[in-house]
């Protein structure tokens, strides 16, 4: 092979290695956090007498110019600088000269990237938390309009007991409230500054980590330098929190898909969030909730990916952790757009009250009320009442009626042990009465649902 060919091969291999090794093309998303951290670091170095006031001022001015160049699209990201930290520092030095070379005193790229990434995760935890609060508010608003609207409650996808639709909506409000609380607790647990940990063992320079921590909005400096530079628990937590939230998004999406089918017709989604078939103009497909449901698998993959990266890493920093960011960036983008769209879907859906209430007349939803009546009014053992209720259900089936539609005479004919049952039973079997009988805390009665709505409104005001 000629020397020329050898050189071409070397150049090609070098280019491939640069592309493989560099993170600049995705960690450039952290430019704002990187510059924010560098400004705080320079201010602390000045406070400690490591930089002069003039040096600090020119460094800060230069960093703000770099930020402007990035945001205006003038900044050229190049593989030559490997990552966002070196790209910013090199451009800063080009702008201000010698003082730019002093900025990296008393820090390492190890604690710098940990700081940048943690700042990003903390900022996103707050913004996602706010989106979840807005979604809870939407579910509560829908619930408040439907505290008397009947819907069949299901277990195993089989009709079970009558609920009100507002109560059903509050189940999701509770899920997303827990998600809110998860992001909140993760934020508090991870709000500690890595800056000043340096490579893994701290620094001999006379720095003030509390100062940079305060400037960056952290609670305090992290306690252990080696753990800090290798820790990615905060990234795993946001991925887990996003995955759990998206699981809840997927569950309501599944119900929306089901409820909007011809078989159910419980809800109709706004045309803005459904599409027609390319060859069947009569169809209206629930594409948006289907996509929301599908994207859940994507964020699960990002969580498992980072777990796999981290599982075998020795202390302290390892290059493997360069693989920590793309999945987080992707999951953050996914949940941000998913929560925004789901919020609008719920706000704009049309509830078909009549279809829901008619569906409650299928499956003998108030059968349990007969058993409860026999226990409470006839002092009958529950298991005996259970088998008598089965007989009444069979009677209703033979008459092609729902149990709630039976007359007292038809009920009495079902089983000799209840041939003298009180006429009051007819009222107990009424579907709306059945729903409203569930007055225990957390129950589905209209009154209890209204109480839960008030509790949510109080919580929303406080948060």
Automatic annotation (TrEMBL):
Signal peptide: none annotated. SUPFAM superfamilies: L-aspartase-like. The keyword Electron transport does not apply. It is an enzyme of class 4 (lyase). InterPro entries: Arg_succ_lyase_C, Argininosuccinate_lyase, Fumarase/histidase_N, Fumarate_lyase_fam, Fumarate_lyase_N, L-Aspartase-like. It catalyses: 2-(N(omega)-L-arginino)succinate = fumarate + L-arginine. Residues 12-301 form the Fumarate lyase N-terminal domain. Keywords: Amino-acid biosynthesis, Arginine biosynthesis, Cytoplasm, Lyase. Residues 365-436 form the Argininosuccinate lyase C-terminal domain. It is found in: Cytoplasm. GO terms for molecular function: argininosuccinate lyase activity. One of its GO terms (biological process) is L-arginine biosynthetic process via ornithine. Pathway: Amino-acid biosynthesis; L-arginine biosynthesis; L-arginine from L-ornithine and carbamoyl phosphate: step 3/3. GO terms for cellular component: cytosol. Its EC number is 4.3.2.1. The keyword Cytoplasm applies. Its main location: cytoplasm. It comes from the Bacteria. Belongs to the lyase 1 family. Argininosuccinate lyase subfamily. This is Argininosuccinate lyase. It comes from Poseidonibacter parvus.
């Amino acid at each position: 092979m000629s020397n020329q060919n050898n050189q071409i091969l070397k150049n090609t291999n070098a280019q491939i290695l640069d592309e493989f090794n560099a993170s600049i093309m995705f960690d450039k998303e952290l430019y704002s956090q990187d510059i924010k951290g560098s400004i705080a670091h320079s201010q602390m170095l000045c406070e400690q007498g490591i930089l002069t006031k003039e040096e600090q001022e020119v460094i800060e001015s230069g960093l703000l110019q770099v930020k402007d160049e990035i945001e205006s699209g003038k900044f050229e990201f190049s593989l030559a600088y490997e990552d966002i930290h070196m790209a910013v520092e090199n451009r800063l030095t080009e702008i201000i000269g010698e003082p730019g070379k002093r900025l990296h005193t008393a820090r390492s790229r190890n604690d710098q990237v940990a700081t940048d990434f943690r700042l990003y995760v903390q900022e996103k935890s707050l913004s996602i938390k706010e989106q979840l609060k807005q979604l809870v508010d939407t579910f509560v608003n829908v619930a408040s309009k439907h505290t008397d609207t009947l819907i069949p409650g299901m277990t195993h996808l089989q009709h079970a007991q009558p609920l009100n639709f507002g109560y059903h909506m509050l189940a999701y409000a509770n899920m997303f409230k827990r998600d809110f609380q998860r992001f909140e607790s993760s934020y508090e647990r991870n709000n500690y500054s890595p800056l000043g940990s340096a490579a893994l063992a701290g620094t001999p320079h006379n720095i003030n980590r509390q100062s940079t921590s305060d400037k960056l909005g952290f609670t305090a400096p992290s306690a252990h330098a080696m753990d800090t530079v290798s820790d990615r628990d905060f990234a795993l937590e946001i991925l887990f929190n996003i995955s759990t939230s998206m699981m809840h998004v997927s569950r309501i999406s599944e119900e929306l898909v089901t409820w909007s089918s011809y078989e159910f017709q419980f809800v109709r989604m706004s045309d803005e969030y459904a599409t027609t078939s390319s060859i069947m103009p009569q169809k209206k497909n629930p594409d948006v909730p289907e996509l929301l449901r599908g994207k859940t698998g994507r964020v699960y993959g990002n969580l498992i990916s980072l777990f796999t990266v981290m599982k075998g890493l020795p202390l302290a920093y390892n290059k493997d952790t360069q693989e920590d960011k793309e999945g987080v960036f992707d999951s953050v983008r996914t949940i941000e757009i998913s929560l925004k769209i789901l919020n609008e879907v719920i706000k704009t859906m049309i509830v078909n009250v009549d279809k829901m209430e008619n569906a409650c007349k299928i499956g003998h939803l108030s059968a349990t009320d007969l058993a409860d009546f026999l226990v409470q009014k006839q002092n009958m053992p529950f298991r005996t009442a259970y088998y008598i209720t089965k007989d009444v259900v069979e009677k209703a089936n033979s008459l092609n009626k729902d149990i709630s539609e039976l007359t007292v005479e038809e009920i009495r004919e079902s089983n000799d042990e209840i041939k003298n049952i009180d006429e009051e039973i007819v009222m107990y079997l009424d579907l709306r009465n059945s729903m409203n009988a569930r007055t225990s805390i957390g129950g589905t009665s209209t009154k209890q649902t209204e109480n839960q709505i008030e509790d949510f409104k109080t919580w929303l005001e406080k948060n």
